[in-house]
Design brief:
It is built from 4 helices and 6 strands, in the order βββαββααβα. Strands 4-5-3-6 form a 4-stranded antiparallel β-sheet, covered by helices on one side. It has a two-stranded antiparallel sheet with strand order 1-2. A hairpin with a 4-residue loop joins strand 4 and strand 5. Helix 1 crosses helix 2. 16% of the residues are buried.
Length: 130
């Protein structure tokens, strides 16, 4: 279903998120990558965020997520990065010895929607005469 609803809103919020390990080190491989995927799904379920697509590369993570309007993108990224960093560093000692923190402080976010910018601008412009 394209839209979701809450008590006060009808919404369709999707984001493409990307972030990297500190120093862009290629540490997201093998068991670490598998565990990262599990942890992302766990935290997303807890927050009621839908992960539509995941691609864990050795030196960065791509996520396509659908979220609630009460969550700002930086909140979603912060929750996912914080949760996964804490648990992965507890479970894999190599991550503690090779990196001062697992993730960089930065991230990339892009909004994704069914309608493009041109269509939305045209629709809003057409509303002026009504």
């Amino acid at each position: 279903m394209r839209w979701k609803t809450s008590a006060t809103a009808v919404y369709n919020l999707s984001y493409h998120l990307i972030w990297c390990p500190k120093y862009r080190r290629p540490v997201l491989v093998g068991e670490i990558a598998d565990r990262l995927d599990e942890l992302l799904k766990q935290k997303a379920k807890e927050l009621e965020i839908e992960i539509v697509e995941t691609n864990i590369m050795s030196d960065h993570v791509h996520l396509f997520v659908k979220t609630k309007p009460i969550y700002a993108p930086q909140f979603v990224v912060g929750q996912l990065k914080g949760y996964t960093s804490r648990l992965l560093r507890q479970e894999f000692g190599s991550l503690r010895s090779r990196l001062p923190t697992l993730w960089t402080r930065s991230y990339y976010v892009d909004s994704v929607g069914k309608l493009n910018e041109y269509t939305i601008r045209k629709y809003i412009e057409e509303q002026k005469g009504k």
